[in-house]
Write a structure and sequence with these properties.
alpha+beta; 19% strand; elongated; 40% helix; 382 residues; nine-stranded mixed beta sheet; 13 helices
């Protein structure tokens, strides 16, 4: 049986260059990538897993590519993924995700995550960190940049922003990424920003905290206050009640540092009160933003940022075993992180075709058990 048309998304990766010399290419690069991607969709996590998956699904895989020499060994998978150029792989990934249709004013959360098992004592290589951009409404990974230390996220974020098409989006970053150059870069990309403030900008943080606490007290006393916009919401479930208040103002004439931050329009404070049983904790967090003084919009953007923890980092660890992955040689950790991001996007994109209550882990199992499900995931168009 001759192969049918390969999945549409794979055409975006045709520019990938095979790192091997021609006479040693018994197994073409597209075939290796197809096995790794299909295997990962179905829950495979190790080189040996990919061999087993390929051997069991060889007839299915031949629907798309010839596989003239069958399935490669685990050493071949390891060698190819270790030597594949991650920069070119990333460019292909970005080209693919730029074809996605994102929501208007999508909140794009940027945050870093350590690949904990990627350290290598033998070569004294520290664990790598992947700084990722995540579309919080669409729940799709838009890009990633590798660093070796968390402190280097500051230099990785501008590089990542350069790769992304973010016009009209809202970019949210935690306190480490609250840098003047990053705010300027986001503005140059025709997007808005919501940046968290902590001790790394202690003077700005303290000035904003003092001003807002004074104005919020006036609001409480007068029950109305023309320079403060306020939004309130709450969640309840699993014995936990969270009550949130967001206060925003665009009255910044008093703030000497406002000229240092490109397009700074508003400052905000979010107060969260969490009650579990008879214990209540309160936290106040401060933000600067290029958005107008709309407390509801700011509150929703700030809350959306946490989706990168719950819908990306947690899923990568629990569903795809990223924290347990011992892949560590050369470029393999970065390339396999990219594979997991591709697979997560494919699973998320296809999820609406199946039961609403189906988890991503459940969808992986269903794809492993049923080739029609695997085909639906592979052949979708974003």
């Amino acid at each position: 049986m001759s192969p049918s048309k390969k999945p549409a998304f794979l055409y975006h990766f045709d520019e990938l260059e095979d790192p091997r010399i021609d006479r040693k290419k018994l197994y073409p690069l597209p075939e290796i990538l197809l096995v790794v991607l299909c295997g990962s969709i179905c829950g495979a996590q190790s080189w040996r897993d990919f061999v087993t998956f390929g051997e069991e699904k060889l007839d299915y895989l031949r629907r798309f590519l010839p596989f003239k020499n069958g399935i490669p060994s685990k050493n071949t998978f390891a060698r190819v993924l270790s030597s594949l150029d991650p920069k070119l792989f990333k460019q292909c990934f970005i080209a693919w995700v730029q074809s996605f249709q994102l929501a208007l004013k999508e909140v794009i959360a940027i945050d870093g995550k350590a690949l904990r098992k990627s350290f290598d004592k033998a070569t004294e290589q520290s664990a790598i960190h992947m700084v990722s951009a995540f579309a919080t409404s669409s729940k799709l990974v838009l890009g990633q940049e590798k660093v070796y230390e968390k402190s280097n996220e500051i230099t990785a974020i501008p590089k990542l922003l350069d790769l992304l098409a973010i016009e009209g989006a809202i970019v949210s970053i935690d306190a480490m990424g609250t840098q003047k150059k990053i705010a300027k870069k986001i503005h140059e990309k025709k997007a808005d920003y919501v940046l968290s403030l902590k001790g790394n900008h202690s003077t700005l943080h303290d000035d904003i905290r003092l001003f807002l606490s004074t104005e919020i007290e006036k609001l409480h006393q007068a029950k109305s206050h023309k320079i403060i916009d306020r939004y309130e919401d709450h969640d309840k479930g699993h014995g936990r009640v969270e009550h949130r208040l967001c206060y925003v103002t665009d009255q910044l004439e008093w703030l000497a540092q406002r000229v240092d931050w490109c397009d700074l329009k508003t400052i905000a404070m979010v107060e969260s009160r969490v009650t579990v049983g008879d214990k209540t904790t309160t936290e106040q967090r401060y933000f600067i933003s290029s958005l107008p003084a709309n407390a509801k919009e700011l509150a929703q953007a700030i809350r959306s940022h946490w989706a990168i923890e719950n819908s990306l980092h947690w899923v990568l660890d629990v569903t795809m075993g990223e924290d347990l992955s011992r892949v560590r040689k050369d470029h393999a950790p970065e390339n396999m992180a990219m594979i997991r991001h591709i697979v997560l996007n494919l699973l998320r994109g296809a999820k609406s075709q199946f039961r609403k209550d189906m988890s991503l882990k459940g969808l992986q199992k269903k794809a492993g058990w049923g080739e029609n499900t695997l085909s639906a995931i592979l052949m979708q168009e974003f």
